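Q: Can someone sanity-check these two? First one:
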Amino acid sequence: MKRLRKMESLAVLAGVAWATAAAAQPEQWLEYHTTQTAMGYRRLELTTTPPPNVALPKLNAAPYFGRWVTPMDPSGGRWVCFDRTRKSGPYDRLFLDSNGNGRLDDETPLNAARRDEYSAYFDPVRLVFKGEDGPITYHLVLQYYQYQDSPASVLAGSGGWYEGTVNFAGKKQRVQLIDGNVNGAFNDIGSNLTGCDRIEVGEGEKAESRYLGRLLELDNQLFQIEVARDGAFLKVQEAENVVFGQVRVPETISEFAAVGEPGHFVRKQVKSELKLPVGKYSVAGWTINRKDSKGAAWTLRGYGFSEAAEFEVTAGKPAVPEIGEPVRGTLQVAEAKNSEVAFNLSFQGAGGERIEMMKGNERPRGPKLTLSSLDGSFRSTNSFEFG
């Protein structure tokens, strides 16, 4: 087990009307697992300025410093220092305040597990948080990279997750809890997709991945869930007295997904109106399916939504998020240092969301761009490529 005690979850049920009997729910415990491949990422901001009042080790080069922010530490985060073993190349030596004592000079340096010309990859680093009745363990995966003249960057990834069998009203399901926003906690919810944790239910091809919320929908049944902050256990009960509101979307939408504190919900065959538990949401995605005059199936998918895609579901007036068609093409032109001109063509939906277009199971061929001078002395035709 990751910890030695049973800690009460700090999740608070508010803003949605349903029965609350969390205290009566049994704690269903999960097992902690580690991985070399991160299950979520966040970027760390780097600085060359040493952190104040932090004792530093002996270093080989002018170092980079970063602070991994986490609510699991009373100070609010842990300092990281990147050094290198060679005079040039990526920073491939790491110091991390693993025990949370505010020092880096007592840490054993960790050399990169592998490196290339621009990057250094480190094995998961074990961190220990102080719990009320014992230690809490977490693993952090770090990757340093710097491409040519670009600024140095670091990706921090979650190197551990919780997994176990959970009883949903008599039906047992395999569950994984994933620290999606990589802050050390496993119970973050909300309408900001980058700030949410995730839950996966089921195994293999039947597994369903959802952003974490106060409710979880399985086989058309709603469950109230409560996750311990450190992920060691969760509580589940059938949801009762849930208040719903209406959401109105364009009739062309065949699938709609929304994420908020109430949960992550996917609605298929929408028919312009759907129901969601009341609360604040962000649009997570939509799909439009059509056939052309020759019978070929085409699919449009919307993703990459901005804050404009946020909406609130109430028991009164229907919510109307701005999504879908019309789809607009945007052409961007940039002149490079070598006098070459780069053209970028993208497609956006009604709310500014990005669009993915598929013909069957494949991407269609990119459109062509023809440029010519006014006098006809120059003419060039090139094809756009995806990526």
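And here is the second, same format, sequence then tokens:
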Amino acid sequence: MTKRNNIEDIKIEFTKRNYALLDNEYKNNSQKLKYICLKHEDNGIQSISYRSFSRGSGCKYCGKESMANKQRLNLKYIENELYKKDLILLSDFYVDAHTLLKFKCIHHLDIIQELSYNTIQQGRGCKWCSRENLSKQRRLSYDFVHNNFKKRGYELITDNYVNSNQKLQYICKKHSNEIQEITYDSFSRGSGCRFCGYEKIKDKQKGNKSRFWKGGITSLNIYLRKSSFLNQWKIDSAKLSDFKCVITGNKFEAIHHLYSFSNIVSETLNNLNYPICVNIGDYSDKELRNIEEECLRLHYKYGMGVCLSKDLHIEFHKLYGKGNNTPEQFEEFKKMKLNEYNNKEGIVA
């Protein structure tokens, strides 16, 4: 236990730290003492208790500089460590191992990624390199794919195999006059020759045997329209229309597909190589999930819908019919309706 400090002793201690103590009397170690850091005179007078001072606290500006120097050392070390993993550090700020660091991979320079140093130390890095490596590990041999097609009674025409999303051409031995295409991803989930599929359900179709028959599509359309999987697409469409009818600016009751819904459904079945079934129950749960996923993907591919009032939505389809509708038709309809409203306003005036 040291003896009670006096102001002169304390001034000497402040001087050793390159501080100029301004107070001329000392009461106790909780008293706020005013001082100037000679290194940061321009920042003015600061204050500190002797208790804090004796524990190492002092000029906050010196503290910030010390932290910055420490950060620079840490960032340099981290930069070198990331470079060993083919990563280029972009961040200029670091607190601890949990700080998210921005970086680029030298193999994917167009993408900025983020990970903490702690995560990188655990073996994580560029997610795109990781996916490519995983893809290579999972890549099937051409002979394996070829044999699986052969087991299903198909002759694979494509002479190389890249990945499960590649379109592969093949001939079904039962329908050898048709060259068909399918991805191995769809093939491995049970999809295959569409003509074999039509034959499997012809008894259920009860005379509606033509593959151009629309009864099954109509039933599927109703099911898909009522399903919840399109909710997010509808919300995104409504946001884009500011939750108002794009023609009247008033309340909306319908979201109109600029690209025909029925065309999207037809394309969905075509992409999956699924036949048109009379009843929804003719599809398995897995097939319905695949249909919903592909249908949603195509909705975003062809863009958002637009908000309309119920009356305008009905009027549009009376003029242009249902099916094969296009964005150009809607622009024509919108222009026509806006001209009508403008003319009415002119008459009233």
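A (reply): Looked at the second one. The two ends are 95 Å apart (CA to CA). DSSP finds 15 helices and eleven strands in the chain.
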